[in-house]
What does this fold into?
Amino acid sequence: MKTAIAIRHVCFEDLGMLEPLLEARGYAVRYVDATVDVLETLDVVSPDLLVVLGGPIGAFDDELYPFLNNVLSLIRQRLESQSALLGICLGAQLIARALGAHVGSMGVKEIGYAPLTLTPEGENSPLQTLARVPVLHWHGDQFDIPARAIRLAGTAICPHQAFSIGAHVLGLQFHLEVDARSIERWLVGHSCELALGGIDVRSLRAEAHAVQAQLEHAALAAFSRWLDGAERRTDRARP
It folds into this structure.
């Protein structure tokens, strides 16, 4: 059986729709909670897949949250192994930072559903299924594209929404994993942020349900295509 480790920063920002997809593809999924679990001795080289999930803190907040230094160390180990690595929101920002790219505040929040603008490279990537599909944005920070990476997508507010390195590293600023059912946990968990931003919880909930069928189909197709490429690369690398 293949193995996947998901590093989680808050309990409700989990693998979402990606988890049953991974299980259907023969992965045993294990969560590691970055805030409380021992990270120093965690083996992130052996698993077939490492996913670094999102969270409501900044990738540069290591003085406030020292455990981020351990997460960055694990990401660097995984990058050096050249094995499959997926970063979502904070996870993608941490991958970018581990690769030497700047991560900082946009000065504005991007929260809600909106489509991406794919780059030419993005149109020929696993993200091609997301063309014209509203996806969930929930962030106020942005990564620069790392030197070795290819920019795949952007929005008017945030031009750096996705990057890849080969077939094995994918960083997503947006959230493909969240479905209409699990969005309720986000609406509660991030209630203070939503209130401060003047965002109507009822409207965001309605958006989630309105786009669910289209987004789920496109998201699972994108994840599946990326996993296909990452797994083929891993198989070729094996002796």
About this structure: The chain has a mean pLDDT of 96. The beta strands are 2-8, 27-33, 49-52, 85-88, 103-115, 117-118, 134-143, 150-154, 162-165, 169-172.
